[in-house]
Every structure is written in structure tokens, then in C-alpha cells.
Design goal:
The chain is of the alpha/beta class. The protein is built from 8 helices and 12 strands. α6 crosses α8. The mean pLDDT is 84.
């Protein structure tokens, strides 16, 4: 699942991104309210962690603007403020939950999981279908022709990035950004290793290489 963190405290944002990536989520980070609004409007996210005190545009306005545009992505608001008024204002603008700094990372992860479960129950189906392949993003299960396929956490995350954009070309750089740490400095060919592993497990024909561009997940012809 893809998460967006909009937080101007860079150390906190990077720490949260690192932890949530380790939990198996694909995480993007921005430090400005206007950039957060642009990212959220242009890309499909499963949840947004949104600070209130932001440069460019505060979290209240980001949230209310997204809701006015019909975007129902779950939003978990973060703030250094406290008090009933601030919480009420955040929820009135359309936020789904509210967490006051300083907070426990364990509590944040629990809130994230609860919001994602709620969205899975009441929102769009978490199952992505590509030909005979079924990718359940909520249960993190993969089946082909009703046979379950065991994947590692990283293999699942790579496949999920391809599945959410099935039929489109996804570049190696995009996979690295969403599946590994956005500050990853290791060998970019690690993506090829995981794609090869997925091909062995899923069968030939599902993941195609588009030379010089990336990979495309598509139903076999």
C-alpha cells in the first residue's frame, strides 16, 4: 500500500518513512503543504500522514481542499498542538484521525493499520486482478489460478507497485523509490533480482521488460 507523509520536520519525516517502509508500505515524503496537495491530487494513495503546521499551505487547508475535490483518502493528522479545539478543527476539515506530538511510533502504526482496515472494509476492493493473478493488498496474499504463491515482503511490494499500474510501464527508479528507502544508495540492479524472482514464482509472461523504460505487468495473451 502507498502512503504519503507530509511533514516539514525532516528528521521526523525520514524516521517515519524508514519505519513504515520496514513495515512493508511504499512511502513518499514531501515537506510542503502545496507539494503534498499536488502529490495527493495526482497520485493514488491509500493513506496520508499530514502535519498541520506546514509551509506553503497548512494541513487544515490541504485536507479541506482534498475533500472538496471528492478525494476520500484516509488522512491521519499530526500536530504539536493539543486541545479539543484543534482536534475538532482537524476532524471538521475531513481528517479521519488525529495524533498529537510527541507520540509513540507504535501508536502511529496502529492508527495507520486501523484506518487502512476501515478503508478496505468500506472502500474499493483491495484485490487487484491481472489475468489469472490476484493480488490482495490488504491480506498481502497472491494467487494465480486460485493457487496461493508465497512471496517475501519485498517481492510482494515490488509486485504491488506493478499491479496498481497494471498495463503501464513502471521504471526501475519508481520501484526503487516506492519499495526501498527513497534515499537508497545501493545497487539499483536489485530491482532486476526481485523481478527475476517474481517471474520464477508467478510464471512467464506476466512481467514484461520494456527495454530502456522499465517493467509492465499484463495478462498473458
Amino acid at each position: 500500500m502507498r502512503l504519503l507523509i507530509v511533514e516539514d520536520e525532516r528528521r521526523l519525516a525520514l524516521s517515519l518513512a524508514k519505519g513504515l517502509t520496514a513495515e512493508g508500505y511504499a512511502v513518499d515524503v514531501v515537506h510542503d503543504g502545496l507539494e503534498g496537495l499536488h502529490r495527493a491530487a495526482e497520485s493514488p494513495y491509500d493513506l496520508i500522514v499530514l502535519d498541520i503546521m506546514l509551509p506553503g499551505m497548512n494541513g487544515y487547508r490541504v485536507c479541506s481542499t482534498l475533500r472538496a475535490a471528492g478525494n476520500d483518502v484516509p488522512i491521519l493528522m499530526l500536530t504539536a498542538k493539543d486541545g479539543e479545539y484543534d482536534e475538532a478543527e482537524g476532524l471538521d476539515t475531513g481528517a479521519d484521525d488525529y495524533l498529537t506530538k510527541p507520540f509513540s511510533y507504535v501508536v502511529l502504526v496502529a492508527r495507520v493499520r486501523a484506518l487502512l482496515r476501515r478503508r478496505g472494509q468500506h472502500g474499493a476492493s483491495p484485490v487487484l486482478a491481472v489475468g489469472p493473478l490476484r493480488v490482495d493488498t490488504a491480506a498481502r496474499r497472491v494467487t494465480r489460478d486460485d493457487d496461493e504463491i508465497a512471496l517475501t515482503a519485498k517481492e510482494f511490494s515490488v509486485l504491488e507497485q506493478l499491479a496498481v499500474r497494471a498495463g503501464e510501464v513502471v521504471s526501475k527508479a519508481e520501484i526503487l523509490e516506492h519499495v526501498w528507502d527513497f534515499a537508497y544508495e545501493g545497487d539499483p540492479n536489485i530491482v532486476e533480482v526481485y523481478v527475476s524472482a517474481l517471474r520464477r514464482k508467478l510464471g512467464a509472461g506476466l512481467i514484461r521488460t520494456v527495454r530502456g523504460a522499465g517493467y509492465r505487468l499484463e495478462a498473458p495473451r
